[in-house]
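[[Sequence with tokens]]
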Amino acid sequence: MTPTDAIDIIAKYHRSIKDLRPNAIVQSYKAIPCTSARIKYAHFVYGEALIKSDSMTEESYQELLESFGLIDSYFSEASELTNAKYREYLEGLRNSTITEFRMPNPFGEIEAVSELYNFLGECWFIENRTQLFDDSPLGAFVYDELRKKAIKDDNIRTLIDMVNSSLTRAVSYPKKKSNEDSVFI
């Protein structure tokens, strides 16, 4: 795969992202233009190309991490089941009840973000012998810990605020909603 192929695959993937809230939170893997493995591989190829061409910026880095982390966050083999649980979760929050549901992380899933973070950090170090941007995957970790704490503390307001936030921060996709446009509860 060439960097140009990778850019094309990532762009098609971004165009396949849909904000289906409040009726659904995830899409079927059938909605993406190719396998999730190919899309993930495209992120590795493109990220390495950005580093080798000295074109990596903190903004492009953050978008790449988030984009990679969203693949398994907002796409699922069991989208109907996940979306049914999501609707139950929203209804529970409306009634001040926390049901068993894990909202997708708008900064990308921690394991995925960490995988790409480590790869790009290694590529950067090989090319530059310095450390890549320090706290870029921090959002994924903070969001996850904030969610865990809100559940532990029975903090309905924080969970509602999390539901009522943008689907993703750094990734652009058609008809992207801002935080202001994402109020459902």
